[in-house]
Write a structure and sequence with these properties.
This protein is α/β, with parallel strands linked by helices and 646 residues long. The chain contains 25 helices and 15 strands. Helix 1 crosses helix 13, helix 3 runs parallel beside helix 16 and helix 5 crosses helix 6.
Amino acid sequence: MHPLPKEARAEAPASAPHRPEIDGLRAVAIAAVVVHHAFPEVLPGGFAGVDVFFVISGYLITAIIAGELAAGRFSVWAFWQRRIRRIVPALAAMLAVTGLVAWAVMTPLDFYQFAKALAAAALFGSNLLFARDVGYFDSAAGAEPLIHTWTLGVEEQFYLVFPLLLMAVFRWRRGALAAVVTGITLASFALALWLAPPWPLGAFYLLPTRMWELGLGALCALAPPARQPRAALAAAGLALIAAGLVLITPEASAPGAWFSLPTLGTALVIRHGAVPGPAMRVLGLRALTGLGLVSFGTYLWHQPLLALGEYLWLGGLPVWTRVVLIAVSVGLGAASWRWIEQPVRARRALARPGALAAAACAALALPALAGAAGYAGWLLPASGPEAARLDGLKPPLADERTIIPPRGPLGFVLYGDSHASQYYEAFTERFGPGALISQSGCLAADDLRNNPPSWIYTAQCDALPGRLEALLRERGVRTVIWAQRWERDLYVAGSETWLGSSTEEAGARTLLAAIRRFAARLPEGTRIILLGNSPTAWAAGDRFADGWLRCRAAWNTDCPASYPEALAEGRGISARLAQLAAGDPRLAYVDPAPALCREGRCLFVQDGTLNYWDGSHMTLSAARRVAARIDPALLAPAPIPPATLP
């Protein structure tokens, strides 16, 4: 018996027998993904449809490559050319349209995130980008329209490497193909299980931890055909897929053991679904096979439509709107298949390889360059000029966490989280040279933290107190300006034990005690100026969670220029900080709220400029307003208690 399936032994890929049940499987996969993205509460595990896609892709690609290797006519360039014809035209069209719409409707902050994703998607590297810090289920609004392109990154990276691997193994020892692929598949699955706890994003997005799914499909192609295909096993495969889509949740470690349900189920259908039975009848339904044919275009278009719709309609799209957008995505998928994909695949367009290569490079270069320009800040969205006029663009130093001038005297050290960073430029303008020591999302008060040890930036946060103390001693600085979000959960450093929240009485006392201990460990004479909590924009409600400009981008809400001061964040803990400073000569307190609030209302727009460039961080204009209210004399060192004088 020939070691390769009949499809792999076909004279050419185009002449391989068509298997309608494979199109039906594609339809099941795309339907699951689309329903999950539109109605995640209805099908929480629908995102596992991409795992079904990966198994199918591994099977079809390996069948083609192995068949051509066996026939002695495999060409890597011809293979890559077919992949280009299959993927690039439809992808480039989606990226171009989505890019234009995003440019027209997004805020500069969101467009910056979108631009990164756009450039990465055009280069088939969005999975690498997202693995750094973009969650699949909680991605930033700017990345959301292209979050689905991570799968294209995985597949294209697979297409680059896997053919070369098969070709090398075939030339070395053709009988070892299945053994080598089995080893890679098992190693990938083990890597996925091992990597998921410490780096869930890497396990989710990267090819090495997804290779087991593609490898499972490849083994379906490399194994000898089933001697007696059983319809019951194909039906069981469908049941496993359905179970996976229902039982898997976003909280499951991915791609882990639970994902063996849809992947093994897909393998069973591939191996046994070509014989008459329930699986063939279901998957062979015309509606499913038709959707399967246009599944690639539907997959490309559904996510931008849903994500941009959600972007323009705060609070969630109505159900009927989501249904309409799903229908539109299927229509666009069909149009893409009919007028973009098929002409290029059938060589009615771009028949010559040189023309194909030139067109593909140009079609992907445009979004790649536009994305790079947006990421670099050279290309602003349509809302950019207004945002610039309002001083609503992200400040250049917003992402800086440490700034220590290498020489010269320092008048102060700004200490805290990203709410310390927001003041640095304004404070150096007013008070002269200073330093910044901070970590976003971190409260580090002596042995008190606001995150458990499992937090990704725990090491950086734990290092802050020691770094501050060392800098004060080395440079002789005696003024610390401590600024951050003071409303925090509280933990003992290095412990998972939750001590409460600073918004509660017990938590507030714990925080104040930690501040006193921290002050005691700093060099004698050090004054700590506690900057109270910023009122923030998101305190005004969900529509301002990402700032006033983001609210303005929506079509279904109004965006007033102020909100009641009673809603301002941190009013309770700021009052406690003021009481603490009043009773301790080492401490002073400055409340930023009076600089940003008037007559009982906190302002988004003040004197023609914005106070916040996102949901909580101040613009340079706002930071200057706060700095203007601080008397420079307050930065003098704290008095040394008489008992300690020589």
